[in-house]
Design a protein that fits this description.
By secondary structure, the protein is an all-alpha fold. It has two domains: about 1-35; about 35-89. The protein has three helices and no strands. The chain has helices spanning about 5-30, 40-60, 65-80. Helix 2 (about 40-60) packs antiparallel against helix 3 (about 65-80).
Length: about 90
């Protein structure tokens, strides 16, 4: 018995449910005026941590999946540097 199509269907349904819940929560918080600006300095620090960690793990374990962590760190670094004037102290 092949379970692969069922697993894909379950993942699709769960992702749709999470997406719908996220939309409702975001709309409710915006309606109540509780929006906060992101802390770009924290994103920069996370980028400094994730980029080298992902590169080292991908090289030492020979697992290319860790390049995703490195890419996420690079994105965090770019976003943090792009919004340097909005850093929270």
């Amino acid at each position: 018995m092949n379970l692969f199509p069922w697993i894909l269907l379950i993942l699709l349904v769960l992702s749709v449910i999470v997406g719908v819940i996220t939309v409702f929560v975001v709309k409710r918080t915006r309606r109540q005026g509780k929006t906060d600006d992101p802390d770009y300095r924290a994103l920069f620090v996370l980028g400094i941590c994730f980029l080298p960690m992902g590169l080292v793990l991908s090289i030492t374990t020979e697992n290319p999946g860790f390049y995703g962590i490195a890419a996420m760190g690079l994105v965090f670094l770019i976003v943090g540097i792009a919004h340097k004037d909005e850093w929270k102290e």
